[in-house]
Structure of Rod shape-determining protein MreD:
Amino acid sequence: MNSIISLNSVRFLVLVLTQVLICNHINFLGYVNPNVYILFIILFPVKNNRSLFILVSFLLGLIIDLFLDSGGIHAAACVFIAYTRPIILKFSFGMVYEHQNMKFNTVDFGAKLTYITIMTVVHHIILYSLEIFSISKIILVLQKTLFSSIFTIILCVLLIIIFSRKSK
């Protein structure tokens, strides 16, 4: 249990620092801005306390908001995906999630990709809807969501492949 807490604490710090120091300075064509910090929410253990998980997700978003001076939009998007995560897990993994014996490294790649894609797109739709906050600019919200989601999904999958442990 102690190793799980330390692993998640290190993951939290590394993803926040990566987001703040590297990813926040990427703004390609005005639309592409990767948000790799959501990988913490995506990879958080399934069996932990849900209230604690939502609180930690709020703190993650709040820390990103403090660095970006964005007024709470990252916190809102993080809390939303943390709250809806059980539904997305059930949709993506089916019966494996139902029995709560799921390990992220042991499920097939298609289910992982579906899960990462849904979590990322939902996060980005909430984030950019709150950032732009104008129904007349819905095309801009969708463009930013699409392009940032694609780049974020690619980075998240690459990070998972690079840093995953091979179980034998």
Residues 138-163 form the longest helix (26 residues).
